Amino acid sequence: AAFSPREMKSPRERERESVREREAESVRQRARGREAAPPPAKTLEDLFNKTKAKPEIFWLPNTPAARARKLNALRAPPPPPSAPGGRPGPGGAGYGGPGGRAGPPGPEWRGGRR
């Protein structure tokens, strides 16, 4: 009767072969896991430029469209001055203008006490 090569090995050799097969399968499973892993996330350094000085400031260069928009805004004539008083109110006018707030309280105002 003919014996297979596995049957002719000693128990110790069969155990070693069994351990090698398990280790090989483990390596194959880890390799499959690496293939399925997603690519690493991009860092800020990959996505933006940054300053060399500390603290680092991350920035993007202007696109040609944004550059043109900003240059046109700089070249545009300045807006007309606001009404006297300086600050526009909710309606867009200064103190007392149409849609604006009333002026600052006068000397007759005493904070609610009389």
Verbal overview:
By secondary structure, this protein is mainly alpha-helical. Helices cover 40% and strands 4% of the residues. The chain is built from four helices and two strands, in the order H-H-H-E-E-H. It has a two-stranded antiparallel ribbon with strand order 1-2. It is rod-shaped, with a radius of gyration of 40 Å.
Query: What is the helix fraction of residues, given as a range?
Result: 40-55%
The side-by-side strand order for the widest beta sheet comes to 1-2
Low-pLDDT ranges: none
Largest sheet: 2 strands, antiparallel
The overall average pLDDT, rounded, is: 76
Structural class: mainly alpha
Total strands: 2
Q: Measured on Cα atoms, how large is the radius of gyration?
A: 40 Å
